[in-house]
Amino acid sequence: MGALTPAHGGRTGDEPRTEGRPRTGGRPPTGKEPQQERSRATRRKLLEAAISCLAERGWSGSTVSVVAERAGVSRGAAQHHFRTREDLFTAAVEHVAEKRQGALKAVAHNLPPAGSIARTWIIVEELVGLYTGPLFRAALHLWVAASDEEQLRERVTALEARVGREAHRTAVALLDADESVPGVRETVQGLLDMARGLGLANLLTDDSARRDRVVEQWSKIIDTALHSRG
């Protein structure tokens, strides 16, 4: 779910020159560009406010009106961008998941040398971070709501599959894991499943001390599984 696509009505600036009508050298400013940027900014505010509301209030407490108020826009503006509540919240989870995945990929530029345990530890910690912040809390509320609401279930199931596949691809790339080796794919998926479990444990209490120890141990397991030369 990306930014809105600007709409252009007809050809401008490329028409053949007609007799007595010199080419102007470019189209005059229309004022549409600032309007489109404002529209994109409003959409971003709504998406990020939706994640905050969902993480803090859950599904039942997160209405379009509540999100619009948090974003500082009118309910009408919110409904202009998102026709239904389901549209808004599934788009919000996907939007923030994409941002989080992008930040995770950027970690690759500042990692220790390949094959080092320090590199593996940083990657495992960052992957666990996918499941221990507001995004995971918001997504969890959405999953629970989808289990009870038929109109939401299909969309959330498809969204979770997309986000899960992207998380797996990112983990494989960061760890430089060779999934043609038997057991490597399952090891990477086990790491992500473990990270999700840590995210669940962190929902009610601060589980950071135990999480640090688990991350350290899993880093050793992953490093051995991926770089063993035995």
Shape: elongated
Distance between the termini: 45 Å
| Main pleated sheet | none
Strand content: under 5%
> Which H/E pattern describes the elements?
HHHHHHHHH
Low-confidence stretches: 1-24
The pLDDT mean sits at: 84
Which characteristics define this entry?
single chain, 230 residues, mainly alpha, 67% helix
Question: What does the secondary structure layout of this molecule look like, with pairings?
Answer:
Elements: H1 32-57, H2 64-71, H3 75-81, H4 85-106, H5 117-129, H6 134-148, H7 150-175, H8 184-201, H9 208-227
Helix pairs in contact: 1-2, 1-4, 1-6, 2-3, 4-6, 4-7, 5-8, 5-9, 6-7, 7-8, 8-9
Protein architecture, described:
The structure is a single chain. The protein contains 9 helices and no strands. It has helices spanning 32-57, 64-71, 75-81, 85-106, 117-129, 134-148, 150-175, 184-201, 208-227. It starts with 31 loop residues before the first helix and ends with a helix.
Summed up:
Residues 40-100 form the HTH tetR-type domain. The chain has helices at residues 32-57, 64-71, 75-81, 85-106, 117-129, 134-148, 150-175, 184-201, 208-227. Residues 1-24 have low confidence and may be disordered.
